[in-house]
Amino acid sequence: MEFGIKNTLASRFSLASMSKQFTAFAVMLLHDKGLLDVDQPARLYLPAELAIDESITVHHLLSHTSGLYNFYNFENDFFGGDYRLDYSRTRFFGQYINKKPTKPAGAAYDYNNSNYNLLAWIIEHVSGEKYGEFLHRHLFLPLGMTNSMVDDGGAVIENRSSNYITDFAETVKCPYYNEKFSIGAAAVVSDCGDLYVYAAFLR
């Protein structure tokens, strides 16, 4: 909006939580290859320093039924504090995810980005590839989704549109957003053409 540039079909956008479908797809690829079992405890497929309660299966993470503490409840200072600091996976996990579950696994649905952060780390640990590299090699490239990628928080991305939000009646620039903290749950960037290819493939 600052430069009066109109969006086109080639404009690329952050997909926010629409990114989760690609994480789930990647997990199912690993399941189909026999590299993990979605009905087994997720901690079997995580590094020792990222271990979670053994009652939580991979499927619980996929279906938002893990019972994990949900730090997106705005009861802490994540968005105003740590979210603006340099990313450290160990500190992020230890401070916001590695807490006593609030409910027994499988007892209730609670939409929680932590589930998908953990799934991304499972993908990395099981495959030996970085999350973005795995999606690129095993999903985007085979489907010809050449305009899709994972934003690492610092990349200069061609044709990327800026994000705006509505504040009551006024349109304003989207607040600062550090995509590194969104691994697995958001951070995929794509355009309409690639999403059409993916939708047709799913059908």
Strand content: 5-15%
Q: What is the H/E string?
A: EHHHHHEEEEH
In the sheet with the most strands, the strands line up as 1-5-2
* Rg from Cα: 18 Å
State the helix count: 6
Q: In terms of per-residue confidence, which ranges show pLDDT below 50 for 5 or more consecutive residues?
A: none
Mean of residue pLDDT values: 91
Shape: globular
Report how far apart the termini are: 35 Å
| Alpha-beta content class | mainly alpha
Tell me the total number of β-strands. Answer: 5
Specify the biggest β-sheet.
3 strands, antiparallel
The percent range for helix content is: 25-40%
Task: Provide a short characterization of the protein structure.
The chain is mainly α. The chain has helices at residues 20-32, 58-62, 89-97, 113-127, 131-143, 192-202; strands at residues 13-14, 149-150, 164-167, 170-173, 188-190. The mean pLDDT is 91.
Can you give a write-up of this model?
With 203 residues, the protein is mainly alpha-helical. Strands 1-5-2 form a 3-stranded antiparallel sheet. A two-stranded antiparallel sheet has the order 3-4. A hairpin with a 2-residue loop joins strand 3 and strand 4. Helix 1 runs parallel beside helix 4 and helix 1 packs across helix 5. The longest helix has 15 residues. The chain starts with 12 loop residues before the first strand and ends with a helix.
